[in-house]
Write a structure and sequence with these properties.
The complex is a heterodimer of chains A (about 375) and B (about 350).
Chain A (H helix, E strand, L loop, with lengths): L44 H26 L13 H10 L10 E3 L5 H7 L3 H8 L34 H15 L5 E6 L6 H11 L7 E7 L2 E2 L2 E2 L10 H5 L4 E6 L3 H18 L3 E6 L21 H12 L4 H23 L26
Parallel strand pairs in A: 1-2, 2-3, 3-7, 6-7
Antiparallel strand pairs in A: 4-5
Chain B lengths: L3 H15 L2 E6 L19 E3 L4 H13 L3 E5 L10 H13 L8 E7 L14 H4 L6 E3 L4 H13 L4 E6 L18 H8 L27 E4 L4 E5 L2 H15 L4 E5 L2 E3 L3 H11 L2 E8 L4 H13 L8 E5 L9 H7 L3 H13 L3
Helix pairs in contact in B: 1-5, 7-11
Classes of the chains: A alpha/beta (about 375), B alpha/beta (about 350).
Chain lengths: ~375, ~350
């Protein structure tokens, strides 16, 4: 299946669906008088500005979802505000499309930034949030951020944390067979690594001679709902556990989109070249707590990666203040419009509960056997 | 005649050579062992996994999600319980994605007592499995059905749990599998791995044909009009034996091999119970919230005024385990004499 165009109806700027290849060290000398990209490790403006744009879009969307929850138009919110600097570059670097030649995504419920960078429109996240029949991921059956987009190999997000890790080994196994360059990317939180499924992924992907092309990632926000990192872990860094399996691993600042872009690119290149797994532990923020169950209030003291990035872009002159304001306003308007549109869309019919228990909606109701 | 292990092996060979199965995997499933019951010997796509049931189910889900066909094995169903939430997710993936993501995967696992397997090689899982919505669940009682049900499971676009009655793995049936040589010795020489060094051994597969048992379709193994007995797997054979004994006394018992636990053949059950007015459900999973209770409930609800006696369920005792000593095992799961006793008591009831 061909990939969808990345152009959005709102006319937002996007980078090409093909990741921009960035040399690891040197960058071309800037034109005289042009804003410097030195503090961005040489990443070009043509990448930095769209990354910022997508990060804003993701943030505005998440905050819109919280407002929808507060307005009583949804039962529950969980999401990823604060992970934009990690999720957006990740999504941009993937080999997007459907089928084994493309990358498979096994994400968790803080993955809105990655979905936005893959091309998801706000309205589709809002439909999921408001449990509409038009929700393309679940048809109104599941929580916010529980995305599923087969056209981009986005596996269904599930509530039980960490089950995605061994499933990613399965898609990677199939990808390895066809040798098409596709890899499987799996993400989860730091608390969930206590589950055995995380260990399964390390073991299955690293067996000598049977290595799997998996990018194993953990977003470490140092919280598991209300329990701190220290209350759950003995290891200093989760990445050390991957090292024990001979997996090339690194800890990165997931609040820095530039570092994220470069390190994810490096690890993806390694996996595509060797067919072996690689590991990234990204240190990230959790800006609105665990979920609406804990209030979904803004948390003080957490680094706001998006605002830090925007400040740097403004200071460097790559981004003008007026342009930044326009981007925020544009997505704010898009979020409001999306909510208004979704509000008027149909809810799922009660008698649809029996649809899709089996393929083709073959009867699964024992009363009708 | 092939035994059930050989029948399963031949079905898997047919699956990998004619039906697109690309992976058959589990603990000790690949060479050199080819499965603890030898059911995966000689298969070109069979491979060994780590000792990790959750990994096995998760990887099967990933392979299926990617669009490839696979058959995964949990070595004994006693060890499937730590995968229960993955099985739940496998069953709800199609539903949760509103029909977008299919998981055409088969998980097979040996079940039941009868081999003096002690606490962790004697469990049953059929009642648990009947609550895994989104799955289809089957259990054969003879080699030909084992072959036909497995081909249907492989072909099905949904996840299918294929329960192997471990006590029947060496039992031979009455019918040849299409393509199977008539000589047992010849079949053994062709597809059984030799004792000792197997490094150079390759199976010589017979020219097999496609034969399927439709999922959801039971089979009447003994016809009768006095009473209906519904079972599957190992206990189906015990029910047949009891029916044969009673027939000598002039008592015609109708025995139904359900073969599919979900979806199940209600038409066959209801048609038979309407005829006999009496019914016994027999299986060896534990008795509280047993699958047979669901069937008995349904009989009560839908056929109440056609019954001549209360519906009965004979199942395993509600115990934490099945003890190793023969006296303990026999006291834990239904025995032939208990089946006979239940039937006689049911027949003696006067409405």
């Amino acid at each position: 299946m061909a990939t969808k165009s990345t152009a959005s109806p709102s006319g937002s700027s996007r980078v090409s669906k093909r990741p921009m290849k960035v040399p690891m060290k040197a960058s071309a000398p800037a034109k005289k008088g042009a804003p410097s990209t030195k503090i961005f490790s040489g990443l070009p403006k043509e990448l930095l500005l769209p990354m910022h744009d997508l990060m804003v879009k993701s943030r505005v969307l998440e905050e819109r979802l919280i407002k929808i929850y507060r307005a009583g138009e949804s039962y529950f919110w969980i999401g990823g505000p604060g992970e934009e600097a990690w999720g957006v570059p990740l999504g941009l670097l993937g080999k997007k499309g459907q089928g084994l030649q493309h990358d498979w995504w096994h994400l968790h419920y803080r993955c809105t930034p990655t979905l936005i960078s893959l091309g998801m429109e706000m309205i589709d996240s809002v439909r999921l949030m408001m449990n509409k029949a038009t929700d393309p991921s679940t048809g109104g059956r599941n929580f916010s951020n529980h995305y599923c987009f087969p056209q981009w190999n986005v596996a269904p997000v599930t509530s039980p944390i960490e089950v995605q890790y061994p499933i990613a080994c399965g898609t990677a196994h199939a990808q390895k067979r066809v040798k098409g360059g596709g890899i499987s990317i799996v993400s989860g939180g730091d608390a969930g690594t206590a589950e055995g499924d995380f260990a399964s992924c390390l073991i299955w992907s690293s067996r000598k001679g049977q290595e799997l092309p998996v990018l194993i990632t953990v977003q470490n926000n140092r919280w598991g709902i209300s329990t701190s990192y220290e209350g759950q872990h003995g290891e200093s860094q989760i990445a050390d556990r991957a090292k024990a399996f001979g997996i090339r691993s690194m800890v990165i600042d997931g609040n820095d989109p530039v570092e994220t872009y470069l390190k994810v690119q490096e690890q993806m290149d390694y996996i595509r070249k060797t067919g072996k797994p690689a590991f990234i532990e990204a240190m990230v923020s959790r800006l609105y707590g665990h979920s609406s169950a804990s209030g979904a209030n803004r948390v003080e003291g957490e680094v706001d990666a998006l605002m830090e990035f925007e400040k740097k872009l403004l200071k460097s002159g790559l981004l003008k203040d007026a342009d930044a304001k326009q981007i925020w306003a544009k997505y704010e308007a898009e979020g409001v419009a999306a909510a208004e549109q979704a509000r008027g869309e149909a809810a799922p019919f009660a008698d649809s509960v029996w649809d899709h228990v089996y393929v083709g909606s073959e009867n699964a109701d024992w009363r009708k056997f | 005649m092939a035994n059930m292990a050989q029948a399963i092996r031949m079905a898997l060979h047919y699956g990998e050579s004619k039906m697109g199965v690309k992976d058959i995997f589990g603990q000790d499933v690949g060479a050199p062992l080819g499965g603890v019951f030898t059911a995966t010997q000689g298969l070109k796509t069979a491979w060994n996994t780590p000792l990790d049931e959750r990994g096995i189910i998760g990887v099967a889900m990933g392979i299926a999600m990617a669009g490839d066909r696979c058959v995964a094995e949990i070595q004994f169903c006693d060890y499937i319980f730590n995968t229960i939430d993955l099985l739940k997710i496998a069953g709800n993936t199609l539903w949760c994605t509103n029909g977008q993501i299919q998981l055409p995967m088969v998980v097979m696992t040996p079940v039941g007592a009868g081999i003096r397997g002690s606490v962790y090689h004697s469990h049953s899982v059929d009642s648990w499995a009947s609550r895994l919505a989104g799955w289809k669940v089957v259990m054969p009682s003879n080699p030909l059905d084992a072959y036909g049900l497995l081909l249907s499971a492989i072909e099905d676009p949904n996840p299918v749990l294929y329960l192997k009655p471990k006590a029947l793995m060496r039992v031979r049936g009455d019918d040849l599998i299409p393509g199977e040589p008539e000589s047992e010795k010849e079949l053994k020489a062709m597809i059984d791995a030799p004792i000792g060094d197997r490094s150079k051994w390759k199976a010589r597969w017979p020219e097999l044909s496609k034969y399927q048992v439709p999922i959801g379709q039971g089979k009447i193994t003994r016809e009768g009009d006095r009473m209906t007995v519904v079972s599957y797997g190992r206990h189906l054979l015990l029910c047949n034996e009891v029916a044969d004994k009673l027939r000598e006394e002039g008592i015609a018992i109708e025995v139904i091999d359900l073969r599919s636990i979900y979806p199940y053949d209600w038409r066959m059950i209801s048609s038979s119970v309407r005829k006999t007015g009496r019914v016994l459900f027999v299986n060896e999973d534990t008795e509280v919230t047993n699958f047979g209770e669901h069937l008995a409930y349904r009989v009560t609800q839908e056929l109440f005024y056609e019954l001549m006696a209360r519906p009965r369920v004979l199942a395993g005792k509600n115990l934490p385990g099945i003890g190793l000593h023969a006296s303990l095992e026999d006291a834990s799961v239904p025995q032939k004499h208990e089946i006979e006793q239940e039937i006689r008591e049911c027949l003696a009831e006067i409405p």
